[in-house]
UniProtKB/TrEMBL annotation:
Xref: PROSITE patterns: TPR, TPR_REGION
Alphabetical list of InterPro entries matching this protein: TPR-like_helical_dom_sf, TPR_rpt
Location of region: Disordered: 292-388
Biased composition, class Low complexity, residue ranges: 301-370
Residue ranges with Polar residues bias: 371-388
Record bears the keyword Nucleotide-binding: no
Signal peptide from the UniProt entry: 1-19
Entry keyword set: Signal, TPR repeat
Repeat region (TPR), residues: 207-240
Protein name, UniProt field: Uncharacterized protein
Organism superkingdom: Bacteria
Amino acid sequence: MNRSLLLLLFLLLSGSLLARRPACAQAATSRPTAPAPDSLALKAAATAAANARTAALATQTRALRQARQLELDRRYESAWQLLQELDSANTVPAVVLQKANLALTYYTATEGLTRFAFRNLRLTDPAPDSLRVLSQDTVRHNFAVRRVLERLYRQYPDNYRLARALGDYFYAVQQCDCAEQRLGEDEVFRRTIAAYQEAHAHGQGDYVSYFALGYAYQRLGRFPESLGPFERSLELRPNNPTVHLNLAFVLLELRDLEKARYHARSAQFLFPDAHHKEDAGFLMKEIEERIQQLSTPQAAPPTEEAVAEVPEKPAATPAKPATVKPATVKPGPIKPVAAKTPAAAKKPAETSTTTAPKKPAAKKPLIPKTSEPTPSSVKKTATPQKTE
């Protein structure tokens, strides 16, 4: 009996010990382990790097805003120097994009769009494109626009603002005719189209880029394809006379005369200067003449039945031949025929100093010059992005 009681007590004690053992193990595993020194250092380094990136981005944003303000104040040399200090190696896309816009728009001298000169202008000074013809500035800033943009676009293929900037570059080549001579004119137009199509497909476009795309199609003779970009440009800027004029030219080529007349009349009304009004008026006159030619009824050719009903004329009776007597010529001295003196040359009419408007060349329609803010429109705020 005692032996049985002892065995029972032993079994009870063993069960209680086994029941307490998992709880103790669980408590031991739930205790937090002390982090290793290396993990703490890595975490601190990552936090410091993130803070440095945030600070650098904030500095970059402030500098870009300041550079835009300098452009509005027409202090283009100062704006360039600020951007150059911010990214002298041309590795930051945001800075390079602003550099490219400044270089292509506000330079006063260039060598093949790879080296540039800028000026700080007063509000009353002429625009940079007027100063270019003077050739007084010395280029000193190296910035090969195409090479820098293409390198960054290969590095950041999803940054379609770089594709838009490449389109702007090739459009600037068309306007200045100062670079890429080895490519040839048609190849420049094809590259303009390719770059803008890529940018527009990803939402990077404005009224200028759509006009430039339509103009490239127009210069290649692909008139139906130029209609869409021109119309999109007018949707974004309805009162742009240059787009109206080029669209009228394309519609005239496609023989859509009523629409061509509407856009030519709009261009003539919207152009502020007399010279461009004359260009639009000349195109308007040609369209009106085409419409007049088509509206004038022409005599229809006679039918076979009408020809059959015409009575034939009776045959004429032959007349008797008349007898001709030979004329008698009395001999006498032959008088020399007096040479006729030429009529006195008429005095040329005095021509007016105003020349008649010339027809725009079919191959080179009007190209708008990139405008800069006029003194009356300069604001002390950053310009908004031109993307849709």
